Task: inverse folding
């Protein structure tokens, strides 16, 4: 459910679009600026933790994780589908 392409709107540079792929060791984020880092699922907290390979990891208090956002149904209930994630206070929509 997490693998796929994501984008932040408006897209103003290559950092605002990318993809999450499944690798042998887990998940990896790669954006269109060719920056890439590992993601460690923390599904109990609906998060994908980043590590020191992420350039924002130490420089921003919100740089340590992608916060998973689930889709909502017509009456506001959460659905078992990923709508996107929040990173650095910005929403990246799953495409």
Result:
């Amino acid at each position: 459910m997490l693998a796929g392409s994501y984008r932040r709107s408006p897209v103003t540079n290559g950092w605002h679009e990318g993809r999450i792929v499944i690798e042998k060791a887990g998940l990896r984020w790669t954006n269109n600026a060719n920056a890439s880092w590992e993601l460690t699922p923390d599904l109990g907290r609906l998060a994908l933790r980043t590590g020191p390979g992420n350039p924002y990891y130490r420089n921003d208090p919100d740089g340590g994780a992608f916060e998973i956002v689930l889709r909502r149904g017509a009456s506001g209930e959460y659905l078992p589908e990923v709508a996107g994630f929040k990173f650095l206070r910005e929403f990246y929509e799953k495409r």
Observations:
- Strands lie at 4-8, 17-23, 26-31, 36-42, 47-49, 65-72, 78-87, 90-94.
- The mean pLDDT is 95.
- The chain is about 0% helix and 55% strand.
- The first strand starts at residue 4 and ends at 8.
